Amino acid sequence: MTDRALSVARAGALTTVQDQGRPGHAHLGVPRSGALDAPAAALANRLVGNPVEAAVLETTLDGCALRPRSPVTMAVTGAPCPVAVDGRPAPWGAPVRVPAGALLDVGAARAGLRSYVAVSGGVAVEPVLGSRSTDLLSGLGPPPLTDGTVLPLGHPGHVPARVDVVPHPGPPAELVLRVTPGPRDDWFTASALRTLTTAAYRVSSASNRIGLRTQGPPLERAVSGELPSEGMVLGAVQVPPDGRPVVFLADHPTTGGYPVIAVVRAADLSAAAQAVAGTPVRFLVVRRR
Asked: What's the farthest any 2 CA atoms get from each other in the chain?
């Protein structure tokens, strides 16, 4: 067996393989998927000398522990968390050399939700439709990691970055989501549109990679009928029967039958990936370009 591999000593609550996803397959019913905090994943890759499209690990809440079979360079970004190699503290947000057989422990997030672990050479699981990403909705890609999982690694291509500190936005104390109204804003009352942009919403604990659910006042419908299923895009703010808006994230369904009152700007979705339950949410309407 090749020594270019990584064994999982502790999988954590939810750790998945993610890259830039598989866009362009919505007509086949396949979501985009990919890292929820794309800038954090890209930064981790840059720190270890990988191309930006290399696959990384996305942890949730309590991190993971990994043991490489050969010497590798690793980096942890995203949600700030303690990092250790064989019990000795190691830097977060910087390249770390990990000897063969040593244990890299990524601890629980001190703020935010999701940390990203890059390994020199990238995680080289078999791609599906051009991507190595785990898609929790469709089941495409490798399953979420379990204790004992062995992940193949690619071969390093570039020298890891030499940095002292890396600027990166922290998890949001308030999640501000810029939205463009539509395409089904006419299915809601004028009062509902005002409520969306003025009411106090918070992130629900029921949120996941499919969507960020909110807690707050329900949005009143002007049209009570059923909507035939139609295409759904990343960042769509769909309103289910309980009236509380849901922001679709990377593993969202490609079609849906509930009206979409607005769409979140793509640039704001990485912050949504790090918003813990209870974080205040504010929807801000911006003009169409």
From this structure: 63
50: three-class secondary structure by DSSP: coil
pLDDT digits (tens, 9 = 90+) for 225-280: 888 999 999 999 999 999 999 999 999 999 999 999 999 999 999 999 999 999 99
Q: CA-CA distance, 251 to 245, in Å (whole number)?
A: 17
Residue with tokens 């992940």: 151
Question: Cα separation of 174 and 203, whole Å?
Answer: 10
E strands, 34-172, are 56-60, 64-68, 72-78, 83-85, 88-90, 96-98, 104-106, 114-119, 150-152
CA–CA distance, 43 with 75 (Å, rounded to integer): 9
Who's near 225: CB < 8 A, 6+ residues apart? none
DSSP run (H or E) holding 70:
none
pLDDT < 70 positions in the chain: 1-2, 161, 163-166, 288-289
CA distance 232 to 51: 30
In percent, the amount of the chain with pLDDT more than 70 equals 97
Q: Decide: 245 and 237 in contact? Cβ < 8 Å.
A: yes
- In 3D space, the residue among 210, 206, 212 whose CA is nearest the CA of residue 251 turns out to be 210
> Is the entire prediction scored with pTM above 0.85?
yes
Give the 3-state secondary structure of residue 268: helix
